[in-house]
Amino acid sequence: MSRFxxxxxxxxxxxxxxxxxxxxxxxxxxxxxRAIQALPLGSDDEWTLLCxxxxxxxxxxxxxxxxxxxxxxxxxxxxxxxxxxxxxxxxFESLLKGMYWVSAxxxxxxxxxxxxxxxxxxxxxxxxSDAELRMSCEWEREAGFAV
Length: 147
Description:
This protein has helices spanning 22-37, 85-97; strands spanning 7-16, 55-56, 70-79, 101-110, 114-126, 135-140. With 147 residues, it is α+β, with helices and mostly antiparallel strands. It has one domain (3-140). It has a six-stranded antiparallel beta sheet, with no helix packed on it. β5 (114-126) and β6 form a beta hairpin. The radius of gyration is 17 Å and the shape is globular. The mean pLDDT is 86.
């Protein structure tokens, strides 16, 4: 199997816990929605590692999936994305810079490199800015060995 035949799966969640009144919370959720909507469509001519269709957001209220935290889910399947992982992370962090959030988690599952979990967290919450983001990474690899 060549490196181009190997599937990579990426999935995760961006979490925002709005502070302030209901109006401020709604503004934060709308800002996040606009950031997702600004991503290109998967059918656009320009190929990008992140596209609008891979993200899902619940509505603004309890009955549509938002009790207090706004959870933005995402998932995609790629052909060997680990070879372009620095670009994927750059595009994801660019998206995060335009959003409100307290944490983000990305899971990368690859056939060759095992499973990786990337995390970003900000105690007081992140508001849209160009501030540098800090990420941590955990790696898990299941290895078979001959006896």
